[in-house]
Write a structure and sequence with these properties.
12 helices, metallodipeptidase activity, alpha/beta
Length: about 300
Amino acid sequence: MNIIDAHCDVLFQLWEKDLSFFSSNELQVNYKKWMKSSVKVQCFAIFVPDYVSEESQFNIALEMVDLFYTHIIEPYDDIKFISSKEDLLELKENERGAVLTLEGCHVIGRDIAKLKTLIRLGVRAVGLTWNQANAVCDGIGESRGAGLSIFGKEVVETLNKERIWTDVSHLSYQGFFDVMEIASYPMASHSNVKQLCSHRRNLDEKQISSLIERKGWMGITFVSSFLADKEPTTYQDVIRHILYVIQMGGSSSIGFGSDFDGATSYPIDLKDCLHYNRFVKELAHYIDQADLQRICYQNFIDKFPRLR
């Protein structure tokens, strides 16, 4: 079964540690593991950490774009840059797809031209915040909890026009619902169910229902602190979150957003992209083949906003 994974932080690891994408054992997603796994398409996030000075953030984002092309796309004939739904559908059997995303609009400051530049460079999903506030909106870690600013609304309207996903993972609660009112293509790239785990970044039933009603997409993440309130976790904890969303009517709205290479603790049997194979075989015991296909890849393809 082919898999599409909507979030990993490989680019950050390559930037911070100068690792080899081909074979570094420090990476949960590297070329050798990826080719042996069932992951057909992997999304790679641009994430500029908060210790980078404000004036340097956009330049660091551009460095990560360069890493994406020079370390992931250009060296390998069997990895294709994915810009559109058409690209997803045209992948050959022996090919894998790579999607470029942005995790946090702090890198653009108050400059819409910087956002448009990143889109022209290939970004196809834009997370409005990380945990902190920026010029677009408050993040979930900001006690003020403010929603979209006037500039934030301009950002979402730009994403609508460009047919780019607006990613609400990390967003404040008010910001989430502000986005639901105006975004044409809402998604949560890596968030889980708050009723099953109290992590502040998880979504409650009202939020999940809103995503489902708006025909959005939600990537279930594998980070242990998002799966259960105590560790260790297993892939059974991941399955609990999937089944919960299905029971809410969300079988056409979910997929995977592992957050590999972006955290320190994962299920004991779901440590890197190679473990997807066994995990999906287990998941198949709980849901029918049609739902399995939708969750593994079809929902992501169906909802990919840019057509060509």
